[in-house]
Amino acid sequence: MSEAVKIKNICCIGAGYVGGPTCAVIALKCPDITVKVVDLSKERIDQWNSNNLPIFEPGLDDIVKECRGRNLFFSTNIDAAIHEADLVFICVNTPTKSYGLGKSRAPDLKYIESAARRIADISTSNKIVVEKSTVPVKAAESIMEILNSNHKPGVQFQVLSNPEFLAEGTAINDLLNPDRVLIGGEETPEGRNAIESLSNIYSRWVARQKIVATNTWSSELSKLAANAFLAQRISSINSMSAICEATGADVAEVAHAIGLDSRIGPKFLVASVGFGGSCFQKDVLNLVYLSECLNLPQVAAYWNQVIEMNEYQKRRFVDNIVHALFNTVCDKKITIFGFAFKKDTADTRESPSITICKYLIDECAQISIYDPQVDPEQMLHLNTHTHKYTHTGIDIEKYIKIYKSPYEAAKKAHAIVICTEWDEFKTLDYERIYSSMCQPAHIFDGRQLLDHKYLIDIGFRVEAIGKNLSKSHTGKPFSSVEGPKAKRPKW
Ligand SMILES: NC(=O)c1ccc[n+]([C@@H]2O[C@H](COP(=O)([O-])OP(=O)(O)OC[C@H]3O[C@@H](n4cnc5c(N)ncnc54)[C@H](O)[C@@H]3O)[C@@H](O)[C@H]2O)c1
Ligand SMILES: O=c1ccn([C@@H]2O[C@H](COP(=O)(O)OP(=O)(O)O[C@H]3O[C@H](CO)[C@@H](O)[C@H](O)[C@H]3O)[C@@H](O)[C@H]2O)c(=O)[nH]1
């Protein structure tokens, strides 16, 4: 590739949360480029071709409606799309391995490898292959080796790393107005030309100074580093929330106060019941495993603590629920508000709600769940593909009921547990809810979402992450769930 190629045909392998929205935005901004999004899953492709898209993402429907059939196509014909493309995005999943070497930590790269092998098999013309999936450092090298070992004579490949930074729920805005676009490539004339070809696509709507070129390994590591830093911020503020509950400091006030320091900044400091989503845990574990493989155990332990803190936060929250409900939730109806891992998405991957429900089921609670977007089947099975719950063999369907109305979900419940920060939870009629519940009625706010004073005035017993509201009701601070009462610090 002696000069930057003008891209006319793009193939995207993987029609998921990244592939679909990213390609929809590229098609919108580049009407002269044909974009084909392909996937092994016929069901997913059929949904992309229907009025009921597989992903709930604000703003996505309108873009797909505008571009689909014009220059945006969804298909299972993977080979044809690869064959025609000048540039291929690899957007397949890279979940944490559930077997073998690196089990529960290393990313599973089997989907990446199979996509790379397919590209090598099918390609009869030069292609730029863009690794958009999140991968360990040096994955591009493996992709290049697979391509170069299997290609047809005369066919050349360039592999770029172009990690995606969109967050679910705000994906369209993030894609239209990214903080940066990162492109890593080989430090050769061919590598620079490939970077230029991809930059020319993004520069249709992203300012040139926001398109950052690096070497391939920096780009791959920057994606893991960005997610690790973001997850670390949440674990840090969550660790503060435990201190707040034990002392009477208010975590929202602490977050505001520290966020005013321009070196710290105000974003991503909302203490919560714990972070969820398909990326943070997986990518931090990926970094931990990478560090271990590089014989850097201290680095691995440092980042692993981010995950440990997240687990601790979820456990702490549930322990508190059990203690506040007079040390037993057995056979009590507990209502979970929110099953998605954050608002404005129907995605439940690694949602804290799952862990919370499992812990409560371990205590034999009867769980009722309401979420405005999540598929009821997923909630009924706690996002597993079976109704049997883990090692206990518990039949979870016996313990879970799904409701279409928050008011029905809360009827005769002993407690409401806010797990997702959906806006609609802020404006429910809590007086009506209170009068339909078993008394004393409890609310556990895992998202600092509600007006606690108002709820206490209604009569609720309220406990919230990072706040000590005890003076208003039981006199027991949130953190006393640890067992022996937290000791007052000596100054
Ligand atoms: N979800 C996010 O918000 C997000 C954001 C940034 C980066 N990422 C990263 O992007 C990657 C994709 O994430 P996602 O959430 O879109 O995953 P996803 O599971 O929603 O989608 C991946 C798709 O790839 C398909 N696939 C797998 N192997 C294939 C193959 N060989 N040929 C064709 N299709 C194949 C699967 O069927 C699936 O539909 C991951 O590495 C993830 O870490 C995700
Ligand atoms: O102050 C905060 C911010 C977030 N969260 C939680 O953290 C999780 C992740 O949220 P967010 O980062 O907004 O959503 P994701 O879609 O997981 O996006 C992250 O993961 C993506 C996949 O790698 C990256 O592309 C994004 O840049 C990165 O923000 C969710 O459970 C949130 O509720 C908090 O608890 N407190």
UniProtKB/TrEMBL annotation:
UniProt domain UDP-glucose/GDP-mannose dehydrogenase C-terminal: residue ranges: 335-452
Part of which pathway? Nucleotide-sugar biosynthesis; UDP-alpha-D-glucuronate biosynthesis; UDP-alpha-D-glucuronate from UDP-alpha-D-glucose: step 1/1
What is the recorded name of this protein?
UDP-glucose 6-dehydrogenase
* Coiled-coil annotated spans: none
Identify the enzyme class.
oxidoreductase
Output the Gene Ontology cellular-component terms. Answer: nucleus
What EC number(s) are associated with this protein in UniProt?
1.1.1.22
Instruction: Report the source organism.
Output: Helobdella robusta
The catalytic activity, as recorded, is: UDP-alpha-D-glucose + 2 NAD(+) + H2O = UDP-alpha-D-glucuronate + 2 NADH + 3 H(+)
Gene Ontology molecular function: NAD binding; UDP-glucose 6-dehydrogenase activity
Q: Which PANTHER family match?
A: UDP-GLUCOSE 6-DEHYDROGENASE (PTHR11374:SF3), UDP-GLUCOSE DEHYDROGENASE/UDP-MANNAC DEHYDROGENASE (PTHR11374)
Task: Give the highest taxon in the source lineage.
Answer: Eukaryota
